[in-house]
Design goal:
Largest sheet: 5 strands, mixed, barrel
Number of helices: 5
Protein name: Gamma-glutamylcyclotransferase
Order of helices and strands: EEEHEEHEEHHH
Enzyme class: lyase
Pfam family, one: ChaC
Organism: Rangifer tarandus platyrhynchus
Function: Catalyzes the cleavage of glutathione into 5-oxo-L-proline and a Cys-Gly dipeptide. Acts specifically on glutathione, but not on other gamma-glutamyl peptides.
């Protein structure tokens, strides 16, 4: 059964419609929500960052990656957001201001859209420390319409694929471990059964596997 985070006082949000945004829009300030590699490697300048969650979505390793964590012959598996009324996805929101806005959007357009196949969508972000003060944020979401979309598969099959793939940004296993490590840092209220099941599946395939800094050093 799906476990909900402890922040029960925050309002439940329905998945919003897509809100494309380009660097040409250049608002004075913008929040960008990361729930995959952006949580540990944003690689753009920002003014503030907050750990928190969005409701109405679940994180899934359903997007193929032929650049960052895989290749054309062996696509890796990276995360996207699945609309789910009971879902809750933890991540990090970054605030960009002024000139940071256009620079961040220009960079992310290449990293997430051109190379990753992601579209933009507006989401409601609830900071961990102040869930009663939600923020509107931009998220990059891979939909079934993009050519890299792989869709659902058993967690064991996803784990096997992750163990076999590597791209220009590193091994697919590193991606999995760093995301799992981030979730542990968020505390017991942060739950992701899909992610945990894939980590467990990797553990059964690698008897000595342990999601620690030593394991990360191996990849």
């Amino acid at each position: 059964m799906k476990q909900e985070p402890a922040a029960q006082n925050s309002p439940r949000a329905s998945p919003p419609s897509s809100q494309p945004l380009s660097e040409d829009d250049d608002p004075q300030a913008l929040w960008i929500f990361g729930y995959g590699s952006l949580v540990w490697r944003p690689d753009f300048a920002y003014s503030d960052s907050r750990v928190g969650f969005v409701r109405g979505y679940s994180r899934r390793f359903w997007q193929g990656d032929t650049f960052h964590r895989g290749s054309d012959k062996m696509p890796g598996r990276v995360v996207t957001l699945l609309e789910d009324r009971e879902g809750c996805t933890w991540g990090v929101a970054y605030q960009v201001q002024g000139e940071q806005v256009s620079e961040a959007l220009k960079y992310l357009n290449v990293r997430e859209a051109v190379l990753g196949g992601y579209d933009t969508k507006e989401v409601t972000f609830y900071p961990q420390d102040t869930p009663d003060q939600p923020l509107k944020a931009l998220a990059y979401v891979a939909t079934p319409q993009n050519p890299g979309y792989l869709g659902p598969a058993p967690e064991e099959a996803i784990a096997t694929q992750i163990l076999a793939c590597r791209g220009f940004s590193g091994h697919n296993l590193e991606y999995l471990l760093r995301l799992a490590d981030f979730m542990q840092l968020c505390g017991p209220q942060a739950q992701d059964e899909h992610l945990a099941a894939i980590v467990d599946a990797v553990g059964t395939m690698l008897p000595c596997f342990c999601p620690t800094e030593q394991a990360l050093a191996l990849v």
